[in-house]
Design goal:
heterodimer, A: 184 residues, alpha+beta, 2 domains, three-stranded antiparallel beta sheet, 5 helices, 7 strands, 42% helix, elongated, B: mainly alpha, MetI-like fold, 17 helices, 74% helix, globular
Chain lengths: 184, 332
């Protein structure tokens, strides 16, 4: 695959099933409690907040479901509920964060249950990608390359996390192949 | 962060449902129920037992229903904010808990503050000045703190306060203020008394925290990045506080979840010895008398706080240290 190839990526529906179940069950559960006891402000506050969080999570899952990401040597283009794009030359900040379980943090459990979130900022825009995205490594690779070309300094956590997924932000690494799925 | 929060919240729902079932059925495990305990107490006192009244109470409390139905009724009540009815106090559970919950929370928060304020400077000093005279002295005191049971320390303090000062240090406020409404006088009285339980309950935790912080920080101080930073001339204070200390604190953040349950049941034995009006002795009494809704409410509170605490520590860790953690080398 040459650097100039355009690659299209989506969130695989199979990876989103769990999130749909979570948001559906969570929203229904919270809503049932609120409806059955609307007079108690504590119940409405606690379970209403819970319902809202799960509903927002459901919306975010739907957005991921319909999202298509195109990566070129010029920039990254996102199409789904609306269109957003970010040219690599306009990239100003890159963040790669890992969200895992407490057991992973303690070093007791090494894989499963965690995910990465890549945030790209520039030209007043903010794009976020979850590691469920097919081609997540490719997007991260492009972002790291653009950061180097734009002379953006990466925070140690981002640089370390990029290294951990096989992308060296300080030197050229081969562009990942589309089938190089990220396993966490 | 929202996906992470939603996923962690989702795990809480089945966890708490399972815990509620386990709590309810464990409380039911001892033979008999509250009314049988009540009858036995009446008979032991030589009083007559009116069987028709007992049957009436059994029906009124729902004790004649199958256990699974009692559980579902209780669970549905909890979800509606109804903690149930205390048989022994003949009051709603929320009324019984009342001020005790607040007082227990005050003691727990004061103890945690005391523990952290004392342990952190000593732990850092002991690690940075390893094998110094101060390190040996603090280590010795730490071992003493770990080895001394809290209730024993409470008894010793009660004894010496009585012998030396001729006063009782039990309780959390002056006896004449116990049933009075909250006022500045009552708050002042609580502040006068709180230092005793704070020291007694906090001693073991402080000693343990010193030992763990010292060990964690020493691990970090021996790493190569510290040697490199020192070789490059970074000031010692900045070096210790900016990098190794932050990483040494990760296990403590991960343990925040274990602090919250103390608000409910912390230091039962110390509370009994010192006569503190906290939740611990109330929970103990509820379990002894099979006052199942009171005991169940306490245990569910405790479980909920554990689950919330674990989630909070996960979120704090994710926010403070969002690195990938693999072993066996990096994956490519």
């Amino acid at each position: 695959m040459s650097d100039l190839d355009t690659a299209f990526y989506r969130y695989p529906p199979r990876a989103l099933v769990g999130d749909y179940v979570r948001s559906g069950v969570g929203t229904t559960f919270g809503l049932l409690i609120v409806i059955s006891n609307p007079a108690n402000p504590w119940i409405v506050g606690i379970f209403g907040g819970l319902t809202l969080a799960f509903a927002l999570f459901g919306l975010r899952t739907i957005r991921q479901h319909v999202t298509e990401v195109a990566v070129t040597s010029d920039g990254v283009f996102v199409r789904g509920l609306g269109r957003r794009e970010l040219a690599w030359h306009a990239l100003e900040q890159v963040r790669l964060r890992f969200y895992g379980t407490r057991r992973q943090a303690r070093g007791e459990k090494m894989s499963g249950g965690g995910f990465l979130e890549l945030t790209l900022l520039g030209a007043g825009k903010k794009l976020k990608f979850d590691s469920n995205l097919l081609g997540f490594k490719d997007v991260a690779w492009h972002a790291a390359r653009a950061a180097r070309e734009n002379q953006i300094s990466l925070d140690p956590t981002t640089a370390g996390n990029l290294l951990d997924i096989g992308v060296d932000a300080d030197s050229d690494t081969p562009r990942p192949r589309p089938q190089d799925a990220l396993q966490l | 962060m929202l996906p992470y929060i939603a996923r962690r919240l989702f795990v809480m729902i089945p966890t708490l449902l399972v815990i509620s079932a386990v709590v309810f059925f464990i409380i039911q495990l001892p033979p008999g129920d509250y009314l049988e305990t009540y009858i036995a107490e009446l008979q032991a006192q030589g009083e007559a037992v009116d069987q028709s009244r007992i049957a009436f109470l059994r029906e009124q409390y729902g004790l004649d229903q199958p256990v699974w139905l009692q559980y579902l009724t209780w669970l549905w009540g909890l979800l509606q904010g109804d903690l149930g009815f205390s048989f022994e106090y003949q009051l709603p559970v929320s009324d019984v808990i009342g001020d005790r919950f607040l007082l227990t929370a005050i003691i727990a928060v004061a103890t945690v503050l005391f523990t952290y304020l004392v342990a952190f400077p000593i732990g850092i000093y002991s690690a940075v000045r390893q094998y110094s005279a101060g390190d040996y002295i603090f280590t010795f005191i730490g071992y003493l703190g770990l080895a001394t049971p809290n209730f024993l320390l409470a008894l010793v303090m009660l004894y010496f306060a009585n012998v030396w000062f001729g006063t009782s240090i039990g309780g959390l406020m002056d006896p004449d203020l116990e049933d009075a409404p909250w006022s500045f006088e009552k708050i002042g009285s609580v502040l006068e008394h709180i230092w005793i339980p704070m020291i007694v309950i906090g001693t073991a935790g402080t000693a343990a925290l010193i030992r763990r912080l010292r060990a964690n920080l020493l691990d970090e101080l021996h790493k190569q990045y510290v040697v490199t930073a020192r070789a490059k001339g970074l000031a010692e204070g900045k070096l210790v506080f900016k990098y190794p200390l932050r990483l040494a604190l990760n296990p403590f953040i991960a343990d925040v979840g274990n602090l919250l349950p103390q608000i409910i049941s912390g230091a039962v034995l110390v509370s009994v010895v010192l006569g503190l009006p906290t939740n611990g002795p109330l929970l103990l009494r509820a379990l002894q008398s099979q006052d199942m809704y009171l005991a169940g409410a306490f245990l569910m509170f405790e479980a909920t706080l554990v689950v919330i605490g674990v989630m909070l520590s996960d979120l704090a860790l994710a926010a403070l240290d969002p690195r990938i953690r693999f072993t066996g080398g990096r994956r490519r």
